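Data availability excerpt. The first of two example chains:
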Amino acid sequence: QVQLVESGGGLVQAGDSLRLSCATSGRTFSTYCMGWFRQAPGKEREFVAAISWSGDNTYYADSVKGRFTISRDNAKNTVNLQMNSLKPEDTAVYYCAASSRPHHPSVVVTRIKEYDYWGQGTQVTVSS
């Protein structure tokens, strides 16, 4: 069992930055692909970014590529999402998720159904 707790959300203005963190429990954190997803009001949950076990492979949604950076610290069991140049359309609840599906340390997965564990979410609001 893995428990995930997100933090770092808030209200910012367009162009500002935020850093989301996800603290995890469980001794097998280093064998999970970690991802960030978001859900805006009235919309479906969507993929934002993912990072492989080893941290050497990342993947981003086109909408955030070049602005967001995902990273992980396997010694601290944490995964972070650095969000720069925020836009009003980035407003959403952001969720951290863990996937045990990859059997190779450099594989990332991006589909919601491939993730086994989810956090409760943290609100990010970007005003124009």
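And the second chain:
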Amino acid sequence: HVQLVESGGGLVQAGSSLRLSCAASGRTFGSRTMAWFRQGPGKEREFVAAITWSSSSSLYADSVKGRFTISRDNAKNTAYLQMNSLGPEDTAVYYCVAHRILYDSRNIYSPGQYDDWGQGTQVTVSS
């Protein structure tokens, strides 16, 4: 397992950018697919982006494709989510998650594939 702590959220205006960070503890970070989910007010939790353990592949929800970029630095045990051109629809609590199986990237869109969740960081975008 890994322990995850998100940071970098805040209140910004539409069109702005934010960079979220996810600091992980534990020795298996570099062996796990990492992802970001979000939950907006009155909405269900939804997949945002994922990146495989070696950064060989990344996937995005259609709603953020072209605006958000997921990355990771295994030497620093940290994952990132660069968010550009933010809009009010991006307002949500953002969660960093680690896939429950080492070296696995199956079913990345399902929250059930992730055992380890951070506490979340709030992103609020005003219009």
